[in-house]
Amino acid sequence: MYWLLLLASYLIGSIPTALIVGKLVFGIDIRDHGSKNPGATNTLRVLGKKSAMFVLLVDFAKGALAAYLPIYFNLEAEPLFFGLMAVVGHCYPIFAGFRGGKAIATTAGALLIANFPLLVIAYVTFFLVIFLSKYVFFGSISVGLSMLIYAFISPKLELELIFLLFSFFLIYLHRSNIRNFILGVEPKINDKNLINDRIPPKNSGF
Prior knowledge:
By secondary structure, this protein is mainly α. The chain is built from ten helices and no strands. The chain has helices at 2-13, 17-26, 40-47, 49-72, 79-91, 104-114, 116-133, 136-153, 160-173, 175-183. The longest helix is centred in the N-terminal third of the chain and has 24 residues, at 49-72. It is globular.
């Protein structure tokens, strides 16, 4: 049952929400536009607020559902492991050629079920870093670092190695953003030129 639920968690995470919305509503592959990342941030950039909110909620729900699986089936296992498997699926989706997003919304959903205090700490840090730096990728990387610090200071949470690896995983996922930042071409969240990437929908509603 343990391995079956881990597989199910990966498959849940592999549902490519932004890709589906892009193709069905806008007739595009979002991985060819904007930052080329099929996540909520690039959906906002390319497809607009309504599409981004839908993608954000579904991606969030993927992590929450996966983390809830061991609870629902009365399995004595850490829910966070199943949530993180959904994160892996989101980043490397089997249903989308293993070209996925960058984990942030799905991680939040997993933490909602697995560790609510950590969710609050990680995502207050996320928004604070974005507010101060104006770069989303800095906020995203800070999620992993705040989780790692929390693990070290929490007497009940023995996941230091997992969160250390997760921090490196987030840095790896954002390597293109880091490169663009070093080259001086990474856009800030308030960059007015981002509106130029917006694509009108072929169907109404989004």
